[in-house]
Amino acid sequence: MRKKIAAANWKMNLTLQQGEALLDGLLAQSYQLQPHQEVVVAVPFPYLTMAVQKLQQVPQFYVAAQNCYTKASGAYTGEVSVDILQSVGVQHIVIGHSERREYFQESNQFLAEKVDAILAKGATPIFCCGEPLPVREANEQNAFVAKQLQESLYHLSAEAIQKVVIAYEPIWAIGTGKTATSAQAQEIHAFLRSELAGKYGAAIADNISILYGGSVKANNAIELFSQPDVDGGLVGGASLIVEEFAAIIKALP
Ligand code: PEP
Questions:
Q1: Closest ligand 1 atom to the C-alpha of 237?
Q2: What are the backbone dihedrals phi and psi of residue 211, each rounded to the nearest 5 degrees, phi first?
Q3: How many angstroms separate the CA atoms of 121 and 10, rounded?
Q4: pTM tops 0.90, yes or no
Q5: Which of 16, 160, 212, 253 is deepest in the core (most CB within 10 A)?
Q6: If you measure from the C-alpha of residue 201 to the centroid of ligand 1, how many angstroms do you get, rounded to a whole number?
């Protein structure tokens, strides 16, 4: 059974002290996670060690970085490699968030290199894709996300693609309070899975977790996560509030 994942993306928010308090608050709640369920918390780089220390003994809770560079080491001032992340106990890395694509000009081709760098070290990429509003309004979202998969992921082997977690995040729903309806989410998740099945076969596509992101909250998580092709969520704003994110974790199917 593929994994169902509640992933928090803190983005560039919270001080260290606020981050510690948020994790303490989350850990004070009780969860009955089943073996196929996971929680991932993507924190700013300087908080990774703190978060790893707090979560490393907690079964099925993992710390993620929000980005990485493609090279292993060297003269790349300000960048952080997969090796550096692994040396502090991090095995999950979010890449291709629409904010990085937009503000830092990350292309599908560059993200293909990041995927390779992460998989080469045995870590897990959480690969974000999703269309902007004009593309959705023109009803061209399927072709848009299919191209993102093709250009960043389709060079991978059948074995490697199953190690990637995909997060579909319609850009018009990120941080806007606008959520895709559960029917819209299911429709495009099913499309993504059928695309993956076309390339790799249905059995492999069935093993790949596809998370939904875009204004997931405590009050819509159950409805979204109950869709057959929605395997949990990548959560921004609501992941900064203990009660909200705890409820989202508990909404995992
Ligand atoms: C995100 O950060 O990836 C995200 C989906 O944000 P929000 O939940 O705030 O829309």
A1: 9
A2: -90, 150
A3: 24
A4: yes
A5: 212
A6: 30
